[in-house]
DNA sequence: TTAAGTGCAAATATTTTGCTGTCAC
DNA sequence: GTGACAGCAAAATATTTGCACTTAA
């Protein structure tokens, strides 16, 4: 993810540990991968990377760990406009939610933080009296290089 | 969908016809269902409704028709926070895009039009030089009745 | 020690593809 | 008449579940 992150290395491990979640070799590997990912990964990509460290990891363990992280609100699940199948992509939860733009031609994903986005969420909470747990804004279209 | 729609009845049929798309009994049924739906439907629900009119319709025809409508920009595809499996929900494209809020407890879906949402899209187009084809904002959380 | 976690196999859910026959225009 | 469309069967994709074995705490 292009946006810089300032969390200490291993913060997912420490965060979960402090909640009393059991730490295994497999989980440690998966958490490290998600934490240091330079772009959004899907379950299959996480599996492949994890197996480089721990060859025996099963894809089920990936799904179970992702679900654990979702439950604890430590990652966000994205669709990125379902550009290639129905899989999901994951990113660690950042302090500030952001918009995801996916280029329908080249597939590049860009992120964008915006005060209007923050304001829109506040508006929904207030005017619709809706308590937000997750807000996801995804845009599909053409990036500046592709619409030339 | 709660938001009122002002299109003439059969506008999906006429719209497609005017583009030279062939009209079959099956398509007519499916289009009518989507057009008059009072809430967001998934492929399986559309199939069940369609089969009441045309018992022979196959689920493949539903998917092919949905894909046709997507291609022509006549419907929007929603995830509604994947509250129950990974299926998609569909709604006819309205003149103004809106936010979808899904209650994680009762499952109710509410829609919300907002000038901030329109403004955010303009901002993305301008500041990121990104030409928007589809913008989808989905929120998961707790509606006013559920968080009592 | 023991409850939580893992791997494996199989199931489920959703959508897509290939092919042959049919129908709208 | 003919090319687009439909139905059926099967495949493909993504994720989840059941169960017996293993391991972190």
Question: What do these coordinates show?
Answer:
The structure is a homodimer. Chain A has about 150 residues and is of the alpha+beta class. The first copy, chain A, folds into 2 domains: about 1-95, Winged helix-like DNA-binding domain superfamily/Winged helix DNA-binding domain (Arc Repressor Mutant, subunit A, Orthogonal Bundle); about 95-148, Ferric-uptake regulator, C-terminal dimerisarion domain (Dna Ligase, domain 1, 2-Layer Sandwich), CATH 3.30.1490.190. Chain A is about 40% helix and about 20% strand. Chain A has helices spanning about 10-20, 25-35, 45-55, 60-70, 115-125, and strands at about 40, 75-80, 90, 100-105, 110, 130-140. A 3-stranded antiparallel sheet of chain A has the order 1-3-2. Chain A has a 3-stranded mixed sheet with strand order 5-4-6, with helices on one face. In chain A, a hairpin with a 5-residue loop joins β4 and β5 (about 110). Chain A starts with 10 loop residues before the first helix and ends in a 6-residue tail after the last strand. The interface between A and B is large, with 38 and 38 residues. β6 of chain A pairs antiparallel with β6 of chain B, so a sheet runs across the interface.
């Amino acid at each position: 993810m292009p946006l810089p992150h300032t969390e200490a290395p291993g913060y997912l491990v420490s965060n979960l540990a402090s909640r009393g979640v059991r730490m295994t070799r497999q989980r440690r590997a998966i958490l490290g991968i998600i934490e240091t990912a330079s772009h959004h990964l899907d379950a299959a990509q996480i599996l492949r990377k994890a197996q480089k460290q721990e060859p025996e990891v099963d894809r089920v363990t990936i799904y179970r760990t992702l679900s654990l992280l979702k439950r604890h609100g430590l990652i966000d699940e994205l669709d990125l406009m379902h550009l290639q199948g129905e899989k999901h992509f994951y990113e660690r939860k950042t302090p500030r939610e952001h918009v995801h733009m996916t280029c329908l031609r080249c597939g590049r994903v860009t992120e964008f933080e915006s005060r209007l986005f923050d304001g829109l969420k506040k508006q929904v909470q207030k005017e619709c009296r809706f308590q937000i747990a997750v807000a996801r804004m995804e845009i599909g279209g053409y990036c500046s290089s592709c619409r030339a």
